[in-house]
Amino acid sequence: MSANQGTPDTFAARWQKLNEIFAAAQELDPERQDELLEQACGDDQALREEAAAILGANRDAQNQGFLHADVFAAGARVLAREEIAGGTEIGDYRVIREIGRGGMGAVYLAERTGFQQQVALKIIKRGMDTDEIIRRFVRERDVLASLNHPNIARLLDGGHTTGGLPFIAMEYVEGETINTFCDQRRLTIEDRIELFRKVCRAIAYAHHNLVVHRDIKPSNILVGADGEPKLLDFGIAKLLTPEVFDNPVDLTAAGANLMTPDYASPEQIRGERVTTASDIYSLGVLLYELLSGHRPFHLRNRPSIEMLRIVSEQEPRAPSDAATMPTEKAEGHTQLALTVETVAQSRNERPARLQKRLRGDLDNIVLTALRKDPLRRYSSVEEFSADLERHLLGLPVTARPATLGYRLTKFAQRNLTAVVFASVALLALLGGLSVSIWQTRAANKERARAEQRFNEVRKMANTLVSGWDKDIPVSLVSNQVRGRIADISTEYLDNLARETDDPALLKELAKAYTVVGHEYTAQFIQEEKARSSLHKAEAILRRLLAGAPDDVEAKRLLTECLGQYDGYFGERDRTESLKNRLEIVRLNEEILAARPDDQRALFDLAGGYALYGLVLKIVGRRQESLAYHRRAAEITRRRIELLERTATTPDDRAKLASTYVSLGADQAGDLKEFDSAIKNMRRGADIADALCAENPENERALFVAGPAQFELGLVLKKSGDVRGSLEAFRKGLSYTRTYLARWRTTYFIRKEYDCLLEIAEALHESGDSAGALGTLRESLELRRKLTEVDKDNLKTYLGHGFHLNAAGKLLTRMKRADEAQASYQEAEQAFRRVVEGEPDQITNRRWLATLYLRLGDSHAGLGVCDFARSQNYGGISAYEYCPPDANEITTNRARLRQAQDYYQKAVHLLADFEAQSIVQYDDKENLRLAREKLATVGENIARRF
Amino acid sequence: MLVAYGAGQRGVLDELMPLVYDELRRIAARYLERERPDHTLQPTGLVHEAYLRLVNQKQVDWRNRAQFFGLAASMMRRILVNHAEAKRAEKRGGKREKIPLDEVTIVLQEDMVDLLELDEALKRLEEFDKLKSEIVELKFFGGLTIEEIAELTKTSTATVEREWAFARGWLYKNLSERN
User: Fold this and answer.
1) Tens digit of each residue's pLDDT (9 = 90 or more) over A465-475
2) Could you tell me which chain A residue has the CA closest to the CA of B8?
3) Would you state the pLDDT for residue A929?
4) Which DSSP state fits A213?
5) pLDDT single digits (tens) A860-907
6) Exposed/middle/buried for A283, CB within 10 Å: 0-12, 13-18, 19+?
7) Cα–Cα nearest to A511, from A558, A578, A567, A471
8) Complex ipTM above 0.85?
């Protein structure tokens, strides 16, 4: 029976049967075997013969000792004599001597018979000729055949030995390895760089031909007498084809032996995907060694786990430092012991000058090529080489841990008009932005410099990102520009964060991240970036606090970061929000305990309590929230006591004034302690008045005076003193306009039309309808003007919506229903714009829902709630829905239909909250009201027709 | 190659080849050095020693012993086959007048084995009964005992013995028929 007999199925079955018969028969004596065969095979004569033959053959084989030889001895002899002797002919070549031996092959110097030409013959070793290795060998041949470059050893020929092993004949390069060449000729740094750039040219050429060398090291680069380097050994080179990308070679611990670990990139050692960036890394190691005489790491003969750790985590010393390292054991490739002197001598330099020569640009260039992250190295060999050229020409190099300065310049060029206002801040910084990361770890002087630059960066983050208000009107900087600057800042901060572990610098970083996080939620909305930025800040601070639990500054920064996060994302998850707000309170308590007489700590703690109370109220825990508001008021009172004792300067007095106002606001809010509130606010307003009288140029005093009157006006109105409130609002308006004449900040622009709105309401309540309407229109005009100027800013439309909403309420009370509806509709447009811009923000939809309720009421002819009741809901400018008293529907059918529509929309939005279990504020009650109204309107329509 | 290795490990095994090769060379040198009448040094003992050395180097994560012995056996086979091919080519090419029989040839002649024919037959056997060809490779070229092969191929010694006997008979019959 032989392999090609029968169809596969029957063959397999027969083979199986044959095995079974053999097994059974083998147990028996020869004579009984026949019986068994006859029994088992029946009529199948062929099977019987086959079985008998194999049984017999096995007996003969055993008797004759077949396959009993000690082939190991034979193999050992072949192996021991494996070298191909001089004079052996291989193809058309005659071997002269062996010149090298690698993993799978050996290289011989040979001569082409009949020619003078010497070649290098590379032959696979006996026993190594597995299919895969032959495939790889053939691939090297193909790779070499596709490369034709003066600095790459050329492929001349290929063939097979008599034993059937493939070989290739390559250009024989007579020369020395590149480092020996450099050392023996005492090449200067400049000459070394020039030589190295020729190697770069060869590698760049290979990369253009989609070939990655993967094994760049001195022993693969020979320099001939003419000074031209030649690249050898594309033995483990790979072609950058999609197929290779899809099946990265498994270079795990075992594979690591194929390459020389000292020159291998971290991704190569880890066995990850290898790209051209790996060659750039290996070139970096080579340059490191050519310049400094040392290698960045010594990995040979280390356990693989340690190798992994070193190349993945350890930062190499700068070459300039390595060059001046004390004596180290001589490396195999050099005859000279590596001492500071020999290294310098072989570079024709004195040690101190060599270090100076390498410091700066060359350190930067080499370390850029050696970055752990392939993406952060030079993007191409050409770029690497070009940077070296720039250095040789004395031009600034691109190698830098961060290139923000450069990129901002480019960016500024493209967006000249847009950034013109920011440019003062920018230009001051561009010179200082080229922070060298390793400098943060270097000597003290360097460190001081690094810190200074770092501060500039932080300042930049603050100025560029949140300093718009004062110096640069918001409207003049487009969101696109702000977004780009925030992006670039983030990248820059990320670079710094990766490299520093200095607590002071880390705090600066956290601060900057918080500011950037704010920026991402302020003007243009990029939630994920905001979240990420704030989380980075939080992580940095928590890490710092874990190490130094008493760091007050870190705690304060953490409260700011958490507060920023909660301000935007808090509404998404109120459980998390309460947790964050409580942590802020706790941190502020700790800060205060550490600094009992710190007015800032008192201020922050009071704010912490007030905001925690607010969130409690939002989730419906009103009773509890009052306790926290009381606690906030208490802390504020302590702050007043402190300031009363200590405040002597006008600035501190202004602070005292605003603290009285805050205390009043705390008391007037949910606590409804109007009398105390009015008393405290008057005290604050009086102090501010006095300060302004003292010095009308005092910005801080003016900054407090206007808002103090405004807040006072609100409380007076709440308490029913309309006349008193009118006076306060008018004073507030006057201060605000004085302030605006000098400093046009958005906050005061807003205060101006807010004052006008409140005045309009007060006038209306006092019976001055004409004055009220005129003032309201003036207020609306200002608001619309701001929106027009700031039309690219999403948040503008929120403010616009609020104001038009308030105007709508007032106009309704003025019995100007049509104008009121138009006003509401304008608010609706604005809110919808915000909802579309921030689709994930819940609160925006909530404002829209309450607006729909008002629109419904307006169309159903129900009016609005009156002045007195509205005070419980926060007054005219409040967003919360105060249901009107009237329930008598007095309108025509068309309007009723519209009302029905609006109620339907309100129900839709509010029911959605309920479905998602994000019920807050008065959502539940409002939904009930909306449904009730919808039903009433429906009945009404049905009844009438 | 042992059945136990999935196709996916093929690449890894090839990466290990240079290491196995170097070890085999080292063993071979020691073997020949100690090969004197009064010294009976078992080659398998040496291979085991080599294996342990590789394991202890820790640079290599050997998945199992089978990997190493399988590689060593198949490498030994290729070394011998390649050597025999070279001899045959020289004979045919007639580049030299006389080919002195070398020790390798002598060893195999005593065993009445034409290595190249054996290799061919083994390749055919491998096509339809992989286990048998592996057992032959491990036993004859790798010098492993029945017990060791049973362990490496995760079968019983009875199975290995049965398979070995059948394979030997089948090969002997096939090689005899040719001559």
Assistant:
1) 444 444 444 44
2) A250
3) 93
4) -
5) 999 999 999 998 888 898 888 999 987 778 778 888 999 999 999 999
6) buried
7) A558
8) no
User: Contact, A271 vs A255, CB < 8 A?
Assistant: yes
List Cβ neighbours of A928 (8 Å cut-off, separation of 6 or more).
Answer: none
Return the number of CB contacts < 8 Å for A and B.
203
Whole-angstrom distance, CA of residue A822 vs CA of residue A811: 10
Q: Which of residues 120-139 of A touch B (CB under 8 A)?
A: 125-130, 132-133
CB atoms within 10 A of CB A741: 9
| CA nearest to A104, candidates A78, A130, A83, A77 | A130
Do the Cβ atoms of B76 and B24 come closer than 8 Å? yes
Q: Which of A92, A131, A183, A215 is catalytic?
A: A215
Instruction: Answer whether A76 sits within 8 Å of B58, measured CB to CB.
Output: no
Tell me: pLDDT of B93 over 70.
Answer: no
| DSSP string for residues in A368-406 | HHT-SSGGGS-SSHHHHHHHHHHHHTTPPP---S--HHH
CB atoms near residue A47 (< 10 Å): 18
Chain A residues near residue B43 by CB distance under 8 angstroms: 70, 72-73, 76
Distance CA B166, CA A594 (A): 89
Nearest CA distance, B27 vs chain A (angstrom): 8
- pLDDT tens per residue across span A196-252: 999 999 998 888 777 788 888 888 899 998 999 998 876 555 544 333 332 333 333
Closest of A552, A607, A600, A617 to residue A585, by C-alpha: A607
Q: What is the DSSP string of B44-108?
A: HHHHHHHHHHHHHH-SS--S-HHHHHHHHHHHHHHHHHHHHHHHHHHHHHT-SS--PPPHHHHHH
SS3 (DSSP) at A605: helix
Answer whether B172 sits within 8 Å of A57, measured CB to CB.
yes
* H or E stretch at A613: helix A599-618
Q: Which residues of A312-326 are buried (b: 16+ CB within 10 A; e: fewer)?
A: eeeebbbbbbbbbee
Q: How far apart are the first and last CA of chain A?
A: 101
Distance between CA atoms of residues A735 and A698, nearest Å: 12
Choose among B138, B160, B168, B155: nearest CA to B47: B138
* Contact residues on chain B for A19, CB-CB shorter than 8 A: 166
Per residue in A565-602, pLDDT (tens digit) is 998 899 888 889 999 999 999 999 999 999 988 889 99
DSSP 8-state assignment for residue A873 = G
- More confident: A25 or A399: A25
